[in-house]
Structure formats: C-alpha cells, structure tokens
Design goal:
It contains 2 helices and 4 strands. The longest helix is centred in the N-terminal third of the chain and has 10 residues. A hairpin with a 6-residue loop joins strand 3 and strand 4. The termini are far apart. It is extended. The strands form 2 sheets. Strands 1-2 form a two-stranded antiparallel sheet. The structure holds zinc ion (2 copies).
Length: about 140
C-alpha cells in the first residue's frame, strides 16, 4: 500500500512532510539512508537501504553514489551538500573525512538532463503552408 501525502495533512491543511517521509522510510518505499525511491515491491516491508547505499557499506572497490561520499579509510559516508561546494563540479576533488581526517580524492561526474517542452500541435491541417499570416517580420523600420 502506497504512502500518500494526503494522509499526512495537518489540521491547518499543510502537509507534514517530516511524518510523511518517516512513514515512507518505515514502509521501505524510500532508502532509509539517502531517501532515494526504491523501485521494487518484492522485498518484505520494513526500513531498508537502496542498492547504492548497500554498495557503500559492502563494496570494497570504488563505488558510485548520487548523494554520498565514502571515506576509503574508515568507511564513513556522508552527504557533501553542506560543506564541500566544489565537489559538485565535474572532475577530481580533494575531500577530507570529517570522522578520521583522512584526505582523499573523489571524482565527480555531472550528468545533464534536458527537458524539452511538449510537442506543438499541428493545428489547421497545413493551412499555414500558404503563408497568409502577414508579411515577414523585419524588425527596425
Ligand atoms: Zn540509499
Ligand atoms: Zn574517514
């Protein structure tokens, strides 16, 4: 059963996002560590972490994660959002572990997503082929 935000309305009409998020984590809908949606209904219900977060804990090789940086020395991982602004640009960045002070490099790969607008409707069946919509627009005059 999906957790719906409508079920977390406060008396004043706004949504209690905190409780909503907690409920989703408790139901295993989102990762309890990074908050990513977990796409699978096959697991038993209950808090769980996504595949990427499990990799951070289990994998001894280098790992990729959309949110967290992992210290290669102590294994601690964290969300760099707050302190390390430049890790969000493409390339290698020196990072210092907050826990054990180990310095290491992370490689950032920035991905881009292009959102294109809706297809424009071809209305009036090719009528504008005849070009009777006024003369060419020459700015200036
Ligand atoms: Zn996760
Ligand atoms: Zn560390």
């Amino acid at each position: 059963m999906a957790i719906r935000s409508e079920d977390f309305k406060k008396p004043n009409g706004s949504t209690d996002w905190d409780a909503y998020t907690k409920a989703k984590v408790a139901a295993g809908e989102v990762c309890s560590s990074c908050g990513e949606y977990i796409v699978s209904g096959a697991y038993p219900k209950g808090p769980r972490t996504c595949g990427s977060c499990q990799q951070l804990i289990m994998c001894k090789d280098s790992v990729q994660h959309d949110h967290f940086i992992r210290c290669p020395k102590c294994g601690d991982y964290w969300d760099p959002m707050a302190e390390e602004d430049d890790v969000f640009s493409d390339g290698q960045h020196a990072v210092c572990c907050n826990k054990c002070d180990h310095e290491f490099e992370v490689t950032t790969t920035v991905t881009y997503t292009f959102e294109s607008p809706d297809l424009e409707k071809n209305d009036a069946e090719d009528e504008d082929e005849h070009g009777d919509g006024g003369g060419p627009d020459q700015g200036g005059a």
